[in-house]
Write a structure and sequence with these properties.
- The structure is a single chain.
- With 297 residues, the protein is of the alpha+beta class.
- It has 4 helices and 16 strands.
- The protein has one domain.
- The strands form 5 sheets. Strands 8, 11, 12, 15 and 16 form a 5-stranded antiparallel β-sheet that branches. Strands 2-1-3-4 form a 4-stranded mixed β-sheet.
């Protein structure tokens, strides 16, 4: 009888201890979840610079001896290069995206193939303007979250494995403003072989060469954009989705979701994303506002 009482007390004691452990674990879990939910989203609100250069693999000076080659800008943490390969007349450049090239060319303030150095809100063609720039807070800044999944697509009528890139963007305007703003994202690829054994990708005049900062795709070029003219559709596929308000409040946030499919001729390990905010002016030209980089891995 005495042993039964002791055994019963031991069971009750163990049950109380187990209950206390469970309550403690639930409290810790609840605290962690609460802390995770209130963690603030941090934007890099510095004014960054977009270095856009029209280029081609037929150009002997492209990236080899050109003093304004894009590699010279990578040491500036606020400068983000973009090489837009041209596709004109009879010339074929396998790295060119014809629609993006044509639309960007029409919207450039300065008709030149030298780098368009978008410093703040001004388009320059001088490295000096970038070096003299004093850091300031940007009007808008974006962050992005990337999700990858396996997919299928067609190349020359044959179904092939592909990767679907799902990109969620949040754009914050730091000040109240009025205007017609657009948000887009661009896939940039580095380390594309351009040496003498690279076939159609060979950079003229180079035995060993890597194509870097190559503009591959716009994240809106696979979207339909119905019920608008062909010219406006080309602009949307290049400059992106419309920010749904023209009167924007201080610290107001806007969300975008874009998807593109990557075929096997891309090396996604060498890719990153540039998110750019543009403003369409009354002249029809698109004014650069800011750019932010998003890694894929």
């Amino acid at each position: 009888m005495k042993n039964s009482i002791l055994y019963s007390r031991l069971i009750k004691r163990n049950l109380r201890i187990s209950l206390l452990i469970i309550i403690s674990l639930l409290t810790i879990f609840h605290s962690c979840k609460k802390e995770e939910l209130i963690t603030p989203v941090i934007f890099n609100e510095e004014q960054n610079h977009l270095i856009m250069q029209f280029t081609a693999i037929c150009n002997d000076n492209c990236g080899v001896s050109n003093p304004l080659k894009l590699e010279n800008f990578v040491h500036n943490k606020n400068a983000f290069p973009m090489a837009v390969h041209i596709k004109e007349n009879y010339y074929y450049d396998p790295l060119s995206n014809l629609n993006l090239f044509n639309t960007f060319k029409l919207s450039k303030y300065q008709d030149t193939e030298a780098p368009s150095i978008y410093v703040g809100n001004d388009e320059k063609n001088s490295v000096t303007s970038l070096l003299k720039y004093k850091p300031e807070k940007a009007l808008a800044a974006s962050i992005g979250k990337v999700e990858l999944s396996n997919s299928k697509t067609y190349m020359s009528g044959t179904e092939v494995d592909a990767i679907l890139i799902n990109l969620n963007i949040t754009t914050k305007f730091s000040n109240s403003t009025e205007g017609n703003y657009f948000v887009n994202a661009y896939l940039i690829e580095n380390n594309i072989d351009g040496g003498e054994t690279a076939g159609i990708y060979n950079q003229a005049g180079a035995d060993e060469y890597k194509h870097n900062f190559v503009l591959r795709k716009s994240f809106t070029e696979e979207m339909n954009f119905p019920n608008i003219s062909c010219s406006l559709r080309r602009e949307r596929k290049t400059f992106g989705a419309v920010v749904p308000k023209t009167h924007i409040s201080n610290n107001e946030l806007f969300e975008n979701n874009f998807q593109i499919t990557i075929t096997p001729n891309y090396n996604i390990q060498n890719c990153h994303i540039l998110i750019v905010v543009w403003e369409k002016e009354n002249t029809g030209l698109y004014k650069f506002i800011n750019v932010n980089r998003v890694g894929i891995y």
